[in-house]
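To the wet lab folks,

You asked to see what we're planning to order before we commit. Fair enough. Below is the target structure as tokens, and below that is the sequence we designed to fit it. If anything looks off to you, flag it before the synthesis order goes out.
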């Protein structure tokens, strides 16, 4: 169970937002307490009603401050539970080939994968992503991935059935790349990654337990083998507060600089 915030601490610093009646002042107060470590990751904030009574602000002002902090990735909502300080985001390096289970565990966090559905379905135009004609079938795998029991991303993976017959006979609650390597002799040698902001809506919002429209990060990944074939095509939808992209690369100075 997440630790609770002592509301007496809240009241000690309520003068500024009470005087200004502006959500920015309240946002700054909460952000400062997070930055100084007074509010640690996982702590539950007072309810909106408690904040309203302690700070003397309108309910709408309280919510504006909370929504701003949510957009910044500092706090998040749990359905029917309240507001919590976000855990530290996991660091993701797209230039390094390491699966989710590996790089999360390397950061002393606890990764978990839960398969939501597996189906062989018509690929349509999207099937071209894995070398399947529009009238051919593809394997579709939908999984939810968690860090320290918190859902952080939902993914939709497409695989060419001709490359991995009988794939669904294996447990997919782990590393798909390892399954392809061990059981099908398929080795990934190159990844192409595209990242863009998105809104989490529909089944993606439901799978992650967030309000529709919550900011997210969409990651599209094509994994290739040595022959240039696409081994798997992956669409990932991350909570925006759960991941930080970090790249460390060497740079060769240009002669004209």
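Sequence we intend to order:
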């Amino acid at each position: 169970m997440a630790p609770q915030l002592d509301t007496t601490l809240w009241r000690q610093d309520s003068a500024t937002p009470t005087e200004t009646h502006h959500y920015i002042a309240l946002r700054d107060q909460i952000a400062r307490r997070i930055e100084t470590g007074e509010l640690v990751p996982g702590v539950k904030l007072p309810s909106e009603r408690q904040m309203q009574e302690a700070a003397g602000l309108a309910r709408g002002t309280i919510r504006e401050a909370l929504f701003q902090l949510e957009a910044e990735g500092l706090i998040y909502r749990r359905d029917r539970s309240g507001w919590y300080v976000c855990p530290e985001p996991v660091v993701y390096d797209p230039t390094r080939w390491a699966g989710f289970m590996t790089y999360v565990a390397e950061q002393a966090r606890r990764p978990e994968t839960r398969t939501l559905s597996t189906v062989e379905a018509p690929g349509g135009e999207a099937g071209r992503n894995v070398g399947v004609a529009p009238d051919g079938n593809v394997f579709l795998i939908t999984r939810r991935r968690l860090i320290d029991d918190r859902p952080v991303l939902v993914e939709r993976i497409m695989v060419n059935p001709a490359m991995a017959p009988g794939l669904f006979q294996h447990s997919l609650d782990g590393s798909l790349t390892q399954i392809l390597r061990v059981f099908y002799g398929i080795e990934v040698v190159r990844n192409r990654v595209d990242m863009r902001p998105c809104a989490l809506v529909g089944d993606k919002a439901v799978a992650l337990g967030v309000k529709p429209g919550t900011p997210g990060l969409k990651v599209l990944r094509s994994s290739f083998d040595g022959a240039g074939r696409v081994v798997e095509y992956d669409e990932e939808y991350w909570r925006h507060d759960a991941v930080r992209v970090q790249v460390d690369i060497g740079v060769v100075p240009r002669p004209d600089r």
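Structural context that might help your review: Residues 7-85 form a domain with the Arc Repressor Mutant, subunit A fold (CATH 1.10.10.10). The longest strand covers residues 111-122.

Thanks,
Computational group
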